[in-house]
Amino acid sequence: MATPNAPEQVVLINREVGAADSFVSHHDLGKIRIVKVTAIPVAAQAAHATILLEVKLGTPALPARYAWLTNDTDVPNDALSNPLGVGVSSAWVAKTAKSLDYTLKTVGNAPNVASPGNAGGFPEHQGVLELTVTKSGTTPAAGGVTVLLDYFNSD
């Protein structure tokens, strides 16, 4: 039974990604408001600037528009107060979720605060969403990655 006013959740991918590989998928969920983007890797990956595991959710024109979850230490790890709200960097812990939750944001994309391209509320999107999962560098760990999207249908 669905909980009233609870967001929908969809699995965008649940698959193996090679040790030095990139995977792109496209999804059209209609007109939605993005609540949370979550990634769960099977293998751990230490925080590093050149040995990367990245999950980006956006549009073909702006691949990290809504989320950029990574272990890249060059990306600012300030998802809550960053007005763009896309960067979350730190080590990836195996089987532990890393997410960008727009309900927790303090500026930018928080509910009732201006979102990119919006007058306010959760980021609204219509059309194709592009999901990119990348592993690169000299010693990235191969393994599965699951990416989840929580969203509300929008009018």
Can you tell me about this structure?
It is globular and about 45 Å long. It has strands at 8-17, 22-41, 52-58, 67-70, 87-89, 98-101, 124-136, 143-153. The model is unreliable at 110-120 (pLDDT under 50). With 155 residues, it is mainly beta. The protein is built from no helices and eight strands. Strands 1, 2, 3, 4, 5, 6, 7 and 8 form an eight-stranded mixed sheet that branches. Strand 3 and strand 4 form a beta hairpin. The protein has a single domain, classed as Jelly Rolls, CATH 2.60.120.
Instruction: Count structural domains.
Output: 1
Largest sheet: 8 strands, mixed
Strand content: over 45%
Overall average residue pLDDT: 82
Q: Choose one word for the global shape.
A: globular
Provide the helix percentage.
Answer: under 10%
State the main characteristics:
155 residues; mainly beta; Jelly Rolls; eight-stranded mixed beta sheet
